[in-house]
Amino acid sequence: MCFKKKDPKRIYFLSLEYLMGRALSNSITNLGIRDQYADALSQLGFDLEVLAEQEGDAALGNGGLARLSACQMDSLATLDYPAWGYGLRYQYGLFRQVILDGYQHEQPDYWLNYGNPWEIERIHMAYPVKFYGTVEEEDFNGEKRKVWVPNETVEAVAYDNPIPGYGTRNTITLRLWAAKPSDKNDMEAYNTGDYINAVVNRQRAETISSVLYPDDRTYQGKEIRLKQQYFFVSASMQDIIRRFKVTHDNIDEFPEKVALQLNDTHPSLAIVEVVRLLVDEENLSWSRAWDIVCQIFSFTTHTVLPEGLEKIPVDLLESLLPRHLQIIYEINHNFIEELKKRIGLDYDRLSKMSIIEEGAVKNIRMANLSVVCSHSVNGVSKVHGELLKTRVFKDFYDLWPHKFHYKTNGATQRRWIVVSNPSLCALISKWLATEAWIRDMDLLSGLQEYATNADLHREWKMVRKVNKMRLAEYIEAMTGVKVSIDAMFDVQIKRIHEYKRQFLNILGIIHRYDCIKNMEKNDRRNVVPRVCIIGGKAAPGYEIAKKIIKLCHAVAEKINNDPDIGDLLKLVFIPDYSVSVAELVIPGADLSQHISTAGHEASGTSSMKFLMNGCLLLATEDGSTIEIIEEIGADNMFLFGAKSHEVPVLREKGPALKVPLQFARVVRMIRNGYFGFEDYFESLCDSVEVGNDFYLLGADFESYLEAQAAADKAFVDDKKWTQMSILSTAGSGRFSSDRTIEEYAANAWGIEPCRCPF
Ligand code: NBY
């Protein structure tokens, strides 16, 4: 309401993925009504905590990118920015992971089964989205114009999800589109008597928003995925232009009122759709339309690898969106002409920078399109920003250095401390004598002065102990394994990927097991007990990742049932990792692992959540870890492994690379069937053999074990550990998504807060 009245410039956040998790606890916390709500419920005979657990997660995304969108929505609302989120209302979210005999199976997540009480269906807020057909040339008063004659129409219906801010009356909206059959199509079919086809087509329309693609690595060039992308951006852009026109009749003012954020390349057809709407529907000249487009888009990429960048086969686009292909060609033509003026006829460079990739299959390079058409191109950490300039988009950086920036990711302390760790939240507020840190996380640095205070230590340890008890209960319920809360809880939870190196973690665990087995009984008394906790989903088609999950179970089976080992070492795999599972696991973790091969993790955000909860990090110098080191100091973490500039050098060595004997030994144990299933694990073992070990598990193994030994040593020094834990929380202020959003607002979007009066 307040935005409508003041009509500020708005930010429209476009993302194909949001991992919102549960809404109840978060909403009542942000609204400041948690206590009253709990009281009211108890009068009705319900317990808030029990009730809140009943809610299922909204899991409309894969991993870090999707949870980042959710954290940023929370920050946008809390900081009073005039913002809208746009996305797709998938009927099936990210698959449920079911483990049978240690293997991952995927089951559909029909999250709308019992309805979704949070969404508001806006049946009248609907737009037609068109596909296929041809482009004709028509004469308008002597002027030739392109006219797209599509032959399929689907209706996009809005579902609004409120996002309340904390400590403000502002609530913003996440508008998710659902695909519905268009009545217009039906009428035509009924008139031609094609009743059966009409019904079949109705069903087909709905498939567009039916399922989230569960792959977080590769773009597969599938038609439905492309339809999803276009369906989403077309509906969003129609809605945004409609809202603009309510109060403005001069379309040239559009950039003064509208900023659009592209969350990776997935929504970047929005660029082409805006050109189409302005030129074909609003009758603007190309140059006027282009002038507008160049001012409104900011683009953030979340990947490091050039092969992670999305490409759309030209043939596919031509059949689905023929007019859009023409527009892309025109954008590219103008760009290449401009480029020739700047760099001359350097064909190698021209072809690398072209939006069109020539070759056996012609592709549209969505990243190039996004860079060419955005005024701001962002990485997600300092080192990622550098990589964009020096590797991924080097040629573009040389051309347009002013476009390139980075905004280090963050996480919202509202969900990741206040809601998921209420006792730590209360403790922090008590010692800082204020709750202001919930809106200004830099204030956490005030804890530093109490880092050695004995009273704080006692209370801090008590909070952590209760969280560990809760986690231990959950582990037993999910896996049947009883764990001791006196052991160090060592956690790695994230999507399963070779570059994230869960395999390295498991090899380290095998080594630990092997060492304990080979020890004299007396020496075992010196072993620091550990509970190793691993969780995460593998993309359904990612074979090696699935083998890592099976290996984890096979090793766990052996270790957990070995009477020699007892409580000295346990390994558990937490099934069906999700936002809600993370909320339970993170507060109970002593140590967490962020061990990607240096140069591969664009940022990483779970590390920030562990850090704010006082968990120590064992990590490589990759992504945002580099900035965490700057904040809390290397002394308060366990760092190891090759640095990113050393990685290519090590790879270069190939078969001449020196690998420690212990590494060869643990891999051999798997190969020799010590944990069973040796045939199944063969290709996994092959992937880390010398000469083949792309992610450098062998090269980093020794220093990994050293970092683990340092963690053991620190853990037995109770005072030191607690101090490091307090300093971790105290140093986490920079990693609030509030800071990230302030940076985007000031440096990319040009927007100001707009606060509703109380
Ligand atoms: O984005 C992650 C990065 O790996 C991580 O380092 C970073 O912290 C995080 C937030 O910036 N990327 C990610 O989660 N990517 C995806 O989930 C994803 C999803 C879909 C597709 C590609 C990647 N896709 O091609 O459809």
TrEMBL record:
UniProt-listed Enzyme Commission number(s): 2.4.1.1
Co-factor(s): pyridoxal 5'-phosphate
One protein family per Pfam: Phosphorylase
A GO cellular component entry from the record: cytoplasm
Residue numbers of N6-(pyridoxal phosphate)lysine PTMs: K609
BP GO terms, sorted: glycogen catabolic process
UniProt GO MF annotations: glycogen phosphorylase activity; pyridoxal phosphate binding
InterPro entries on file: Glycg_phsphrylas, Glyco_trans_35, Pyridoxal_P_attach_site
Alphabetical UniProt keywords: Allosteric enzyme, Carbohydrate metabolism, Glycosyltransferase, Pyridoxal phosphate, Transferase
Catalytic reaction annotation: [(1->4)-alpha-D-glucosyl](n) + phosphate = [(1->4)-alpha-D-glucosyl](n-1) + alpha-D-glucose 1-phosphate
Family per similarity comment: Belongs to the glycogen phosphorylase family.
Primary role: Allosteric enzyme that catalyzes the rate-limiting step in glycogen catabolism, the phosphorolytic cleavage of glycogen to produce glucose-1-phosphate, and plays a central role in maintaining cellular and organismal glucose homeostasis.
Protein name: Alpha-1,4 glucan phosphorylase
Organism: Jatropha curcas
